[in-house]
Design goal:
alpha+beta, 3 domains, four-stranded antiparallel β-sheet, two-stranded antiparallel ribbon
Amino acid sequence: MPRIRTIKPSFFRSEDVAALPFRARLTWIGLWTHADDAGRVKDNARLIKGDIWPLDDVSLADIEQDLETLAAHGRIVRYHVGGRRYLEIVGWHDHQSIQKPTPSKIPPVSEGTPLPVPDPPERGLGSVSDPDGRAPVALPEKPASYPHSAGSEPPVALPAASPTTTAGKGKEGKGREGSARTRASTRADPGNSEQRPPDRCVDHEDDPAPPPCGVCARAREAAQRWDADTAARAAARRAENQRARAADRDRAIAACRLCDERGYVGTRLCHHDPDATGRAARGMQRVRAALAERHDTTDPDTTTARRDHP
């Protein structure tokens, strides 16, 4: 069933979002409203069209093209579990705050097999998608001041990163994300490191409000796996220590002739030391003797008597 979701203002100023075609952006937003509270939905083009594009001339091929584009840009992960296909929206909990989430009935990505991810399609200002979802159609060159009437032409897709931009600054689309992915691959393997891996890509490490980023999403997943593995190892160590202490206690009780099977002598916890009572008595005698000697040396009457009767 559809749900109310939120869109951050930074969505419209994100360079990564601007690299997506217009229709793919709307499909992405539509998936938010029909995904469950874990950001998962069935990967079925017919269902997605009926939920998101029921009144528009958008074909099943268009839907499939949008899903491939979103997967290529790291916005969704497509996978299958037990012969059924699903998709999960990347970075779901970073952008949707759900107060009382309903548990998902769809298995997570970790329990399935991800589908192959295609490379992001190269798109430029000189092409737009054909209305029937076929190959891009070339547009004639027009000056920037060329007038357009609203609704007279299909929307023009924003450009993806050019080869020069990708190799240089890497500020848009594939170039930005590709450069982050390349640099992220040079980091230490989180599974073999004792230090927690970063939960953002190198491009967004110091960004107080990072835009949606597939590389960041994968970094967060790696950091979460590291946290879970570290917590599991710590719990295993604590359990092993508890078992060792319990085994030591059982051996001491079995070897002790003073206590019962619970380790008690009457109402007292047994110390499993047969000589403890005698040793305590001897210690108390020494304490009393030391106190008596101290009293004799500090009592004025005793000191005076000793001076009068040497």
